[in-house]
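Worked example

This section walks through a single chain of length 615. The input is the sequence exactly as stored; nothing has been trimmed or padded.
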Amino acid sequence: MVEDHQVNPSKATHRDVEETLAAVLRSGAFNGSAQLSDFLTFIVRKTLANQHEDIKAYSIAVDALGRSEDFDPQTNAAVRVAAGRLRQALSAYNASEESAENPVRIELASGSYVPVFVVNESETKTLSSQGEPTGKLDEIAPLPSLAKTPLAPNLQGEIANTKTPAKPARTPIAVGLVVTGLIVALAAVLSTIRSLDYADNPPIAKPASSTKVAGSSAGTDINAQEVMLRPTVFATLALPDDEYPDWLKLGELRDAINVAIARFEDYKFLGTTIVRKENAQPARTADYQIQLTAHRREDEVRFYGSLTRAVDGEVLWTVQRAISRPASLTDRKIVDMISREASPLFSPYGIIYADIAKGMLNRPATTCFVKTYQYFYSKTDAKHAEARECSEKLIKDGMATSGIHSALTFLHLDTYREDRNPRAGQQPLLAAANHANIALRLAPLSARAHQARFAVFKVQGDRARARASAERALQLNPYDSDIIADFGAWKISIGEVSGGRALFKRVDEELISRPAWLMFYKFLAAELEGDRAQVARLSRLMDVKRSPLTAMAVAIGAHQSGRKDDVKKAWNELKTNAPKIVADPMSNLLKRGFAPEVAQKLIDRFMETDMKSGS
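Given that input, the structure is written out below as tokens.
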């Protein structure tokens, strides 16, 4: 869906468009959504470069939205849905006073993916294709780093193929049915996980006594420190119809919801209540509420689901699914299906984390809890220091949970790997190992704690124990997209490319936004397999400022594509902010758990990019 006209502004107009684009990306609607920002940046840059053949649904899906290469625009409406949201966001921004201060307006007409640039002065002529541009895109000042993008998008309807409702509306959540024995077994495991509280695993500092959640019903006692730290979640299963098909086991359905949500230990899950009326008031109040409504349509059941922020009733996510009678008991996989739907909600870089990162709960301790993921989404020394200091303060204040110690494990490892904010006399690798051990002692069945141990073992080069820890983490929560992707990235770094890509494929559709490290390891997989086209595409999407690894990737991909200015920018970034990597790349990659032979291949490709280009 590409229009015939081309946009070839002059050199000065290039700068005007770039300046306007930077302002749009800083605005509220875009600063909170990586998907909208990446979509808009891609089509604007392609238009300025006269590369209109790349502005099509498939290219946008793969190169801008991070979809897999088997994406089919004929059967998947994800790009059309995202384009609709982009048009709405641009229209709202262009109607604001802030827009009037920009040199141009960026508009996206209905039915087109090619943006139009309208001069924002007394004359309102639309820039059109009159001759070739006099200035090259390479001469334009780079866009402000997408590192400013928050943890993940603001999620009103961010899931692919789901439109944002103007009001909290019914829309359905994935479901199917599971064998009762599996439900009971998983419920027992999750019950054990939830029972690993402070009483059995005393933290370094004793937490405060129990208190009631504000607004909760009588008898809902939760540890006060946990309420300050972990967001509370409550689910309601509405069954408004008089009868349902005999194959739908309502008790199993409720248990499946409990098992699916309770796996995500970063939240305090308050359970599921069955109600008979649609839109019935929940039995208790939590920070976030999930409502699942089931409607019978003959022998089919249609499910409508939504996630709501309790403080103001804003709907953050909606979904709908219809299921028919399963062919056999083995087809009843409700736990698996609901867990896959829950992953984009509860995983790091997911919907609730994005909401917390915006400060919507107005709870400093909870906001601190997600700062580690904000740092890994886009690395800076300032974000690293902030996340480490606030996590250490939480422990000092008595909130020494397993999750906080796991977070400090990852942060100390980056001090070791990347020399981030070193402290005199501290051994960061030892500090990381100590925090991982404490995390596991506090919660032996915590998937995140086993992930922390995995991170330490891979850095130490202990592949056997690293693999065992990662597999244990996935056994405890096989739906946490961060754990799945982390394991996949490590497999790629030790040369197990096909295994790593298989894990990436599992989470590709579930990730709401992609941290810098994930983009790099996708690039590395393509580089190791000799996929030069994919190397070029991914390197164009990465920002050299998001991490030292992305800067290396941009240098390699830009060199292959002949983008000399991008090579120079990457080298300058590394020399300025990561000089130790330039001086000794092998040591740095080995500290990240790379196999020596994989590290050498990457270094060879990196050195081919001509070090003089960065001078």
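What to look for: Residues 1-12, 122-223 have pLDDT under 50 and may be disordered.
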